[in-house]
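To: structure desk
From: M.T.
Subject: fold request, one chain
Message: Could you run this one when you get a chance? Sequence is below, nothing fancy, just the single chain.
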Amino acid sequence: MFVSEKQIEIRYAETDQMGVVYHANYVIWMEIGRTQLIKDIGFNYAGLEEVGYLSPVLDISIQYKKAMRYGQVATIRTWVESHTKLKTTYGYEILHEDGSVAATGTSLHTLVKKDSFRPYPLSKVDPEWDAKYHEIAHSGK
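Reply: Done. Structure tokens follow.
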């Protein structure tokens, strides 16, 4: 299974009054991780948008395990959990510097035509990208 990693230095603006990372920032970090994974396997999400496609989130889930704080470095680990004709599920782990898990999550996406928002198979837009997702998907779907 291919796992992409991206480190983020936690900024003060990402924390709340309790001094811990505000929960919504994990969603942003997951987006950063997903973008890094796409880049690491040789593709470019912006390129999909340029040719008229978007990949909206259909579902997102985060489980918070251990608080993170300002000044720490978070490592975002991202992989393709499953990939089917119309849906891709990404998996995430956000780790503390010592390797302990701060949060885990998944996000479910589809590919749509920008003008109609109708689902469209990645295999018809970029067969190489689709094949790579099938190759690296954790579940092998």
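Reply (cont.): Strands lie at 4-9, 53-54, 57-64, 73-83, 87-95, 101-110, 112-113. Let me know if you need anything else for the meeting.
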